Amino acid sequence: MNISKISILAFFIIAFSACKEPTENIKLVVDTDIIKYTAMVNVRDAYTGEAAPANATITVTGQAAPNVYELSGKKNIKLVAGKVTIGLHPDIAPTTAAPMTITVEIAAPGYVTQSKQITFTAGQRQQVAQIDIVKVGLPTPPVIPPPAPIYPDLSIDFTGVCPDRTDFQVRPSVYLYFRKLNSGQRFEYLGYMDKGNIKTKFLQLGETYEFQIVYGGNEYKVSQKIEVSYYALTIQMPGACNL
Questions:
Q1: What structural domains and CATH numbers belong to the chain?
Q2: Residue 206: other Cβ atoms inside 10 A
Q3: Is 81 left (phi over 0), alpha (psi -120 to 50) or beta?
Q4: In 10 A of CB 27, how many CB atoms?
Q5: 58 by DSSP, 3-state: which?
Q6: What is the pLDDT of residues 60-95, one digit of tens each?
């Protein structure tokens, strides 16, 4: 079953009281928070830290695999910029007594195939599965993540829009990545964006950051210089509006 059409159930129709006609100034606001138990799979080169090559593939196996979908509801699960968010069908939920486990396998030409188990539990709705792949013939390097600096509290609201649909907005519930603009650094995980909002302590005042999300097999980016404690940002998401 393809659940992409379930997104229609997440529509909120907002009509302004000043409308002259019943359909005037109506906006369709799509909430992507449909699949409740999700995992962000982030695949990187173990040595360079760069995203997995474009020809890397992901395979999901295990007893729960038939009930696993890409976040937008598609059964076609693929990596985009080394990332994909997968999750359980909305009608399926793990319990305390019965967690649900899958195995994801990452394959790429010239790299050693890597597998990782992901377990969905009743008490955890979001998780990040970091998978580092190593080129054939190289040893696996130790992973020593640097401590993240802490900055003042910051809140950002993201609204997804489409170039040709002024009546359509997306309220994304997705995993958000970031890096300093034009730094050449890899994207790092910032946090989970709930219904378009994220609160964080990891953005420095005075710096300009590039933000990245992956949804529906597409990568979307937007940048912003951080000068105040709140921003409302618009991110172009044309692929999310093809209903």
A1: 38-133 (2.60.40.1120), 154-241 (2.60.40.1120)
A2: 7
A3: left
A4: 15
A5: strand
A6: 999 999 999 999 999 999 999 999 999 999 999 999
